[in-house]
């Protein structure tokens, strides 16, 4: 999400000298340190690439990329001052070379070029860098404030609308006015070349992994003719290279320095429009998620032990700022990476009701996390349940949900998502397979979603006591007069516009259970004293006494909902002191 999962992002580049910042990631290691933002920089690059040859003979060099970029620009030079281009005009990520070389050659390239540049700058009478070993190979650490970057849907929309971005001649789709092929491409294993990914655009990470994929290894089932660049390399060379090129042509473009993308201040300054055009990739508005089932009896899915889920894909798109909130690497069905069971699936299974299903791709990237775990892990923002649970931390929800245990889900919650198909739905799916089953499943899912409550239920106001006087323990203070109806109405107003709350709070008595817990939902719940006895020290472990229960519930709610009045520390604001 990283919305509940949102990370404020700028662009997908990082620094001006097209791949010098990348060099630290690919050739020299990230070398990132952490510390207080006020003492750190976003452009710190730790040059320690020689460790791939063995132990380092000197301390790593901490290179301030933006600082050097400013000097390069002042002298009228560009990226070629430090980086070479290949015969296709692509800027190399490596410093002053196009490919990896030996340890001694790498050392000589750095020493000859860096020191000579510092000496030449000094001869010109300008402030220059060190020329002695200890000046660069210092033992101290400069704290890094580099923050992760990504292309969210707002930045994606800005790029898609740009008339200055055009696909390369070899990837342009005839008659297509969109510029998608400028960034999204696929590999044609037969023709052994890149092609436009029209209608099948995917995340960069689908092919470009965290490290370079060597020649001879396959990516997503394809044998590439060349080594596949790592994601950092692809992002910096393509995105940053485009920014630099557009800047050279005096066009409006994105950041060209490390801090422009990876600096907190710049990320927070990015203006994000409230509404953007939906990214169209042939994705469904709704999908029916079912476990793999025998192809001959798709409509019998509930018999496998899990009722299907009608997934509102369009609503989830709107609630998140990036597709990667759910699709971590590849834009496809969860079962492409997360197996539904430990053993490899049988070729006879049919997962067509899951959009873009690919049974043969199970557990490729799932890290051993099974499908049920991926969907239901309460502590993970990448799971359905975990994301929903995180939403309950919002002030309008936290008053009730903060006190609820997160270790396990109440059984009745399962039925909010998992609904058994009725007879009509089963008939619509019976005997279908492939695209026909997928299409019918989406239609069934859309009907199930339309039948869900849109807003939370609320009992009739006349059924809610206007005030409740709490005086069972009145001693030093007067009995507390609880504005009961006002509280219920405030809870309702806080969640009534949320479709998520509507799905889980459709029963009019659900909101009542925020306070009247551990008893069936009812408009006439038992009194608190019915379960909580002595003022302190409950009769059962973990259950507070009556006075403790009142204060934990009321004060905890006020604090979680960030209510300024009545304050959770001022007794007299709830019950006046006796004379």
Strand content: 5-15%
Unreliably modeled segments:
1-38, 293-304, 344-364
CATH class descriptor of the largest domain: Alpha Beta
The mean pLDDT is: 81
Rg over C-alpha atoms, rounded to the nearest angstrom: 30 Å
Query: What is the CATH superfamily label of the largest domain?
Result: Cytochrome C3
Q: State the end-to-end distance.
A: 55 Å
Structural class: mainly alpha
- The shape, in one word, is globular
CATH topology of the largest domain: Cytochrome C3
CATH architecture of the largest domain: Alpha-Beta Complex
Amount of helix: 25-40%
Domains (count): 4
For the largest beta sheet, what order do the strands appear in spatially?
A: 1-4
DSSP strand count: 14
Reported for the largest beta sheet, the result is: 2 strands, parallel
Q: Count the helices. How many? A: 18
How does this model look, in words?
The chain is mostly helical and 579 residues long. It folds into four domains: 20-144, Alpha-Beta Complex (Cytochrome C3), CATH 3.90.10; 153-249, Cytochrome C3 (Alpha-Beta Complex); 286-450, Cytochrome C3 (Alpha-Beta Complex), CATH 3.90.10.10; 461-573, Cytochrome C3 (Alpha-Beta Complex). It is 30% helix and 7% strand. It has 18 helices and 14 strands. It has helices at residues 20-26, 65-74, 103-123, 133-136, 153-160, 231-248, 258-262, 264-269, 313-319, 371-376, 384-391, 395-401, 411-417, 423-429, 434-450, 484-495, 499-504, 546-560; strands spanning 40-41, 44-47, 61-64, 143-144, 185-188, 193-196, 218-219, 222-223, 286-289, 293-294, 309-312, 349-350, 468-470, 480-482. The strands form seven sheets. A two-stranded parallel ribbon has the order 1-4. It has a two-stranded antiparallel ribbon with strand order 2-3. The protein has a two-stranded antiparallel sheet with strand order 5-6. Helix 1 packs antiparallel against helix 6 and helix 12 runs antiparallel to helix 18.
